[in-house]
Write a structure and sequence with these properties.
Number of helices: 2
Distance between the termini: 43 Å
Helix content: 25-40%
Shape: elongated
Order of helices and strands: EHEEEEH
Strand content: 25-35%
Number of strands: 5
Strand order of the largest sheet: 3-4-5
Length: 108
């Protein structure tokens, strides 16, 4: 599966101005201008990102197909998600259940 990248939102709300060498600047004004800058140039950044493609394996062992890949960065955490769709046979499902049954992992 070829994945194209797109920037949907950049918003910085945690701007703090400790010092400024050329005068005084309001943290609110700086945050507002920074958000405006990202909003304005998001179009150009997305055009550049559209030229890049990342190949992600979509077929896993012939049993699952991945779709709806989702990557998000927020508050110093990266969230990655995908939707697996089972395409195997009943025998494949039985094999997976037998191989990864809960009894093997529960210790009393």
């Amino acid at each position: 599966m070829n994945v194209s990248l797109q920037l949907q939102q950049i918003k910085d709300t945690g701007v703090r101005v400790d010092s400024c060498a050329y005068g005084s600047i309001s943290a609110f004004a700086f945050k507002t201008k920074l958000n405006f800058f990202f909003t304005t140039f998001k179009i150009f950044i997305n055009k550049w990102l559209a030229g890049l493609t990342v190949t992600v394996p979509s077929n896993i062992a012939g049993i699952f197909i991945l779709s709806e890949l989702y990557i998000e960065y927020y508050n110093n955490y990266i969230y990655v998600g995908a939707t697996p769709t089972f395409i195997g046979s009943v025998a494949d499902a039985s094999m997976l259940i037998a191989k990864y049954s809960a009894e093997d992992y529960v210790q009393l």
